[in-house]
Amino acid sequence: MKTHYSLLLLLCMALSCTKKKPAIENISEIEKDSIIKEDKEKVVVVEDKLIFTVQIAALRNENSELENFEDVKIYQEDGFIKYRIGSFLTYEDAVKHKEMSKTFFADAFVQALQNNNPIHIKEALSIK
Hints:
alpha+beta; single chain; globular; six-stranded mixed sheet; 38% strand
């Protein structure tokens, strides 16, 4: 099992190694009145919306392997570097993506963002 995991991780890193290192975003510097939603090849700005994303790691130090994953977004919050993938308008879509991500990231979980600020998932679900 560990061998399979290692091979899959190496394959993912090899496929994504040509990607430029993304900029680390400080959550406090992101506009409070807009949220970015990915839509296949384009990026759409959706104002004042609740989105869900999948957090795959929160570390004290940068991790170049995680930074090379395709579509990873990096944020600095509360003294941690947080790695998140995907932006979803529904909790259900985020859960599906989380389940697929658990193949590589066992501790992945859905994180809700209201105006780019992390909020508790129960609060997010009560808003919808």
